[in-house]
């Protein structure tokens, strides 16, 4: 676990932390920016911390505080070290967002055991490890929010996506179980189904016809996704949402 050397120095006692596991250039980065704008210290992870430098710079330029870490969400020792470091050196983790995808298509006839297992590790097992470690601290404080990023595959499996659907189904079940256990202890656990193409470079280059729908609000804007994560975190506890579906108005169900 390596901290990016370009991060902001934050006092040990200060604003609370929003930890985003899987802060990519799209949804994860937008979520980190939204929580930083809301006064939280944004702590973000990717396997390569150098890729977080532009995101950190954007947050700092907007007046926020940010830290970037290289961490493999599938490795228990790295997850434990990450959470320990943040809690000890930066601040209490008020919000955890688990945002790792692993959407890799393959026919079941060609799928290998190694790749199937890796997809499950990334999309589900990593959620368990990070959720468990952060929940331990939140329970002690009797407060916190944990949000898992799901997908359409969490609700129905499509042809050629057996591994991804299995992992996302399992992540949703994990989130449900955690919500039922931790809700009475004042920990809000939520699962977000993101159903539709997102405004990313991958969609722009790989699916230009779909990307062309951007002008008609036909693909998801990462900033608008992030706003819904902020909404979940700020909900009053007498009306908590467990599952939130996000999709463009023209997306087929």
In quaternary terms, these chains amount to single chain
Q: Which class in CATH terms?
A: Alpha Beta
Tally of separate helices: 8
CATH superfamily: NAD(P)-binding Rossmann-like Domain
Short synopsis of the structure:
With 253 residues, this protein is α/β, with parallel strands linked by helices. The protein has a single domain, classed as Rossmann fold. 42% of the residues lie in helices and 17% in strands.
What does this structure look like?
It is globular and about 50 Å long. The chain has helices spanning 27-37, 53-61, 76-89, 113-141, 162-182, 201-206, 208-211, 222-234, and strands spanning 2-3, 17-21, 41-46, 66-70, 93-98, 144-151, 187-194, 243-246. It is α/β, with parallel strands linked by helices and 253 residues long. The protein has eight helices and eight strands; from the N terminus they run ββαβαβαβαβαβαααβ. The chain has an eight-stranded mixed sheet with strand order 1-4-3-2-5-6-7-8, with helices on both faces. The protein has one domain (15-246): 3-Layer(aba) Sandwich (Rossmann fold).
Which helices and strands, and how do they pair?
Layout: E1 2-3, E2 17-21, H1 27-37, E3 41-46, H2 53-61, E4 66-70, H3 76-89, E5 93-98, H4 113-141, E6 144-151, H5 162-182, E7 187-194, H6 201-206, H7 208-211, H8 222-234, E8 243-246
Parallel strand pairs: 2-3, 2-5, 3-4, 5-6, 6-7, 7-8
Antiparallel strand pairs: 1-4
Helix pairs in contact: 1-8, 3-4, 4-5
